[in-house]
Amino acid sequence: MSTFLINVGIGLATAAILALSAVAFTLEYAVSRVANFAHGELLTIGAYAAYSGQAIFHQNIAAAALIAAAAGALAGLGLNAGLIEQFRGRSAITVFIATLGASLVLQNSLLIIYGAANVTYTFSQGSLHHVGPFLWTTSDLRVIGSALLIAGLLYALLQRTRFGKAVRAISEDRALAQVSGIPARRVVMQAWGLAGALAGFAGFALAETIGTFGPSLGFSFLLLTITASVAGGIGRPYATLGGAVVVGLAVELAGAYTSSAYQNVYGFGLLVVLMLALPNGIFVRRSAVAVRA
Amino acid sequence: MADGRAAAPATAGPQPAPLLAIENLAKSFGGVTAVRGCTFTVAEGTVVGLIGPNGAGKSTVVDLVSGFGRPDAGRISFAGREIAGPARWGSRRVKTMRPDRIARLGIIRTFQNPREWPQLTVLQNVLLARCAFGHESLWRTLTRARRIRREEAEDLAVARQILDRYQLGDLADVRAGTLSGGQKRLLEFARIAAAGPRLVILDEPMGGVNPVLGGRIGDAIRQFAADGHTVIVVEHNLPFIERICDEVIVMDVGEVIAQGSFDGLRGNPRVVDAYLGMDLSHG
Amino acid sequence: MMYWVSVVTEAGIFAILALGLDMVWGWCGDFDLAFYGYLALGSYMTMVLTIGKPVPPTQYILGLSLPYPLAVVLADIAVVAFAAIIGAVTLRNLREIYFAVTTLSAVSALYLFVQVYTPLFDGYNGLFGLVNPGQAALNLTYNGYRTFFMAVVLGLLGLAYLLVQRVSGSPFGRMLRAVRDDEQAARAYGRGIFFAKYRAYLFGAALAGLAGGLLAVFISAFNTSAWAPQELLLIYAAILVGGRGNPRGVIIGVFVVYVAFVELTRFLPFGDAMRQILIGLLIILMLRFRPEGIFAERPGGARAGGARAGGARAGRTGNQVGEVADPAAARAAGTKAAGT
């Protein structure tokens, strides 16, 4: 039983990172109606930025996290201005393919800059702690803690501020929002900056948890992110958090009880199953209108 | 109406079974009820108008009959076959036929906007509507392409004739997407003529149409009926309905509130009510 | 000289793959990211049918020593059978992005599975040993055989092109175009969408499997480093350049893009990564500025407004790329074939 819970604990740590990444992905979708295939690269950029930052800030984890978030934010802004907005009005699948192209460009640019070999942070993972039935490292705790904190801040941001209201309005109907006086382009840009920051931070957290990473860090996490978003229901940030927990746990447990080499296979398999059976997400009432063809 | 093709005389023997029978059809979207307890029949060879104010549920009924939506309850039968009805064991779900299957059974419908295939030529649009499914086998295409082309020759001749009938002959090789709105409407009729279905359902064919074209459309519809097809026309243009329909069904808030001849409707208080005093007294 | 034989052979193989992929993307409008898996399966199956029993510690399934041509045919059948399953599941209800993501997941899962589950195709190590089958029987030198093989590939490419052209000018092809243009209208006229796309999908997969069988000889080995799902993007870029739904354009596109890339990146540092960057940029630029392709034939009779009309329909079907083999080709086929 205790190993089960330990695995649940690991799953929760994964889920925390997944949640951040998935919420960012969902946010991008909500404001721009685009499934951003280059999303993984936002994570990778954050991770590498923190790595570069280590040269300056050494063991200062907070600084590294901030650098990662800042880099992610810049990347998000750049991606939005340079690509997404250029394809406004085109069909969703067209933009999707374009982001696929962007993913290639970004990932390989990172490869050229930093080399193909894996790099490592030199932060310590910290000691193991018993928190109730779970067994977590200090870094796990930091990740889970910051994920919860960020989730709370995000809630406040989306519900209580004007920015949040604008984001919600735009995600319903951009044209209508614009007509009602909301500066859509600016809000969208800010939303992408925010999503990028989240993604960058998630990338840093992911890299720190795994320990060593390479240019394909974010990309390999992308399908899992999409799985979590779909599980939660695309475009719904809060349900996405739930989706991340479910997916994180499912993948972790499946891998623990069969063979961890197959972990990603389960992740992909889960996505296929979700797409076919529950494209509206797990938490949806039956009366929801179908999302696909 | 005056051509003696009205409903069968009351004193005749047992009436032939209706071509289309709808029974207690119901459909809601989210919390909104679009259609409820809708019941009516359509006799073969007639032109029936389906009218009613906006939001009456007419287009929903068209969608349900043609298989582009699943009813929540009710039954639809066409030419003796049930195309929508309670699933087995009296369960509450309604099982329905897929739209392409319903089309193959003999119901062809139009949509409120003309929906031609824009990248295909006008001629190709009509050829495709001929529904010569046998020619569309991939295996035969790969192995017997020449034979298929020969077999198509006859369809080709008929298609050109149809195009001429609708004055689209000169546009045969033009991409359908470049036609004007009126031409697209005519193309729709050409396609229907090519398909030759037992039942044609026209969803607002007069939308945005000028009177001259409207006249041609009315003639085309009467011609369909003369050729033995049955037509249901959903329309707002009441003079048009009066001119071409043998019978009219009136819907309001999702129900059928009247069925009968157009003249008979004028005196029907529910109908007048539904139209909020619109002038039904056109000639 | 042999360098060019090699380049042309490889481009020819990818052109066959591209024709198959174009069936699914250009003709049916479905963005399938799993397609490379069919090529891979074709390669793997061809190998396990020709290289004989595994010598431990190598392990793989089957392990027969059939003649190469027979092995390719059987491998292709296996690929089509596999595609029949995948297609049956994904084509039924999924469209657009959902279809793309689901197929990508499926092929990624397969990719990882093949890597990890060694009894199948020996995992990371992969298979090797299919070297110039029949070289001795044909009494050729190594280079002579490679040249001969290039001719075989080009010949098969020509055959594939002919078949695809047949589809293009046929009622089946016409129906596919209609389904892609406006699915609902096609349903209203009695066309089963799934059935139409499914057949085209299997035909495309058959071409991909064939390409796989040929690739196995070209490389004489095959392992997972030869087929990451991202490889497919080069083919997609080539189709974009050549024009979707346009068989001739697709072939030209593949040759141009492939040869250009091989040549360009030979002299660049970080060759491989630069290649990927260029592919990515190419995809973005083509989609942004010239989605119908560089070599796409312009509609002859109809105005270029055809492309605009295609764009206007984007809202309905989501197929914006105002593409396709067009009236010029159709009319050309028409004058030969009394109008399709």
Give a description of the structure.
- Chain A has helices at residues 2-32, 39-57, 61-84, 92-114, 138-160, 162-172, 174-179, 184-210, 217-232, 237-257, 263-277; strands spanning 119-120, 128-131, 134-137, 212-213.
- Chain A is mainly α.
- Chain A has one domain (2-277): ABC transporter involved in vitamin B12 uptake, BtuC (Orthogonal Bundle), CATH 1.10.3470.
- In chain A, strands 1-4 form a two-stranded antiparallel ribbon. A two-stranded antiparallel ribbon of chain A has the order 2-3.
- In chain A, a hairpin with a 2-residue loop joins strand 2 (128-131) and strand 3 (134-137).
- Chain A is globular, with a radius of gyration of 18 Å.
- The model of chain A is unreliable at 286-293 (pLDDT under 50).
- With 283 residues, chain B is an alpha/beta fold.
- Chain B has a six-stranded mixed beta sheet with strand order 7-8-9-3-10-11, sandwiched between helices.
- In chain B, strand 5 (81-86) and strand 6 form a beta hairpin.
- In chain B, helix 3 packs parallel to helix 6, helix 5 packs across helix 6 (181-195) and helix 6 runs parallel beside helix 7.
- The model of chain B is unreliable at 1-9 (pLDDT under 50).
- Chain C has 340 residues and is an all-alpha fold.
- Chain C folds into two domains: 2-227, no CATH class; 306-339, no CATH class.
- Chain C is built from 15 helices and two strands.
- Chain C has helices at residues 2-27, 35-50, 68-90, 96-116, 118-121, 142-168, 171-181, 183-188, 193-219, 232-242, 247-266, 271-289, 305-312, 314-317, 327-337, and strands spanning 127-128, 221-222.
- Chains in contact: A-C, B-C.
- At the B-C interface, helix 2, helix 3, helix 4 and helix 5 of B face helix 6, helix 7, helix 8, helix 9 and helix 13 of C.
Summarize this entry quickly.
With 293 residues, chain A is mostly helical. Chain A has one domain (2-277): ABC transporter involved in vitamin B12 uptake, BtuC, CATH 1.10.3470. Helix content of chain A is 74%, strand content 4%.
